[in-house]
Amino acid sequence: MCLFLKTFNSTVAVSDSLEYKTISVFLVLLVCCVGIVGNIMVVLVVFTTRHMRTPTNCYLVSLAIADLTVLVAAGLPNVSDSLTGTWIYGNAGCLGITYLQYLGINVSSCSITAFTVERYIAICHPIKAQTVCTVSRAKRIIAGVWIFTCIYCMLWFFLVGHDGHVQCGYRVKRELYLPIYLIDFTIFYVTPLLLAIVLYGLIARVFMSPAPSSDRKAQMHTGRFKLLRYRNYSAFLLLFTLQVTKMLAVVVILFALLWMPYRTLVLINSFVPTPYLDSWFLLFCRTCIYANSAINPVIYNAMSQKFRSAFRGLYSCQRLEGTHVSQQISGSVSSHIHVCISNNLQ
């Protein structure tokens, strides 16, 4: 059972038809297996490959761990619930699984917001990014996100419970938990998307703006970038920032689209006397949410040469050398220059 979709009526039972159970179990298991394997690979390649330890990738690790939490705490219990028709994890399982579901959901949203801000600073304020967009700062931000979200989600310990028979659901009146959903909708969905629209708009303006002035060029030569001539810098700036930014923009867009059915359902049902709780539509909403947690590693593999090479190296049980990755991406430019740029821009 996916607890966070059982929003308005804890007595609504999942369809007992064989057709529904078969489709539900197949879809959820397929998406969850792909997502669990993919997100574990993201965590492993960043931790085991030195050149992958960049500020942006730190946020992607946080996102991967949050997505793993959603898939394990929401997807897998949904399979057992579909097969047995009852809640088999008791009251402690009800509280713990619900808590982990919302923890994963909210950390995912915060991680997306964090790397969106990081991309904006890296592209629109490249000089400032050299001191602000660092791995150590990213780790501190991620720690703060997880601590805040862990505390915030403790509220769910007081809202749900096991009825002692077959269900894990809400034990408070609708008037009490509906405001919580609306607050979540605003903080963890609307706000990140509005911020992303504004910041990616500013990023797009930088890409479409004319070539930098001579003063701007001089600034770009300072610090670690003084190793490069401006022509080489411009080429690599375009290569790395376009690749990484487009990949992260796709992550944000899919987050918005795949969460929209569930968020819309909750919003509409908040204002109607009879909630819409069609089992097939709820299955569609659940599948979209699980797909959002499973699809990010696929995006990284499809849109990032560095992740694709790292995944390939992990699969073949080989550690990729920085010079190998550099040759694939930059061709004739030295690996020292490549590491210098990738550390600053990613």
Proportion of β residues? under 5%
* Mean pLDDT over all positions: 79
Number of domains: 1
Query: Compute the gyration radius: what is it?
Result: 22 Å
**Structural class of the helices, strands and pairings?**
mainly alpha
CATH architecture: Up-down Bundle
User: Secondary-structure element sequence?
Assistant: HHHHHEEHHHHHHH
N-to-C CA distance: 38 Å
Strand order of the largest sheet: 1-2
Class, according to the CATH hierarchy? Answer: Mainly Alpha
- Helix fraction bin: over 70%
Number of strands: 2
Organism: Cyprinodon variegatus
Family: Belongs to the G-protein coupled receptor 1 family.
Domain G-protein coupled receptors family 1 profile: 38-300
Pfam family, one: 7tm_1
Essential attributes:
single chain; 346 residues; mainly alpha; Rhopdopsin 7-helix transmembrane proteins; 2% strand; globular; disordered N terminus; disordered C terminus
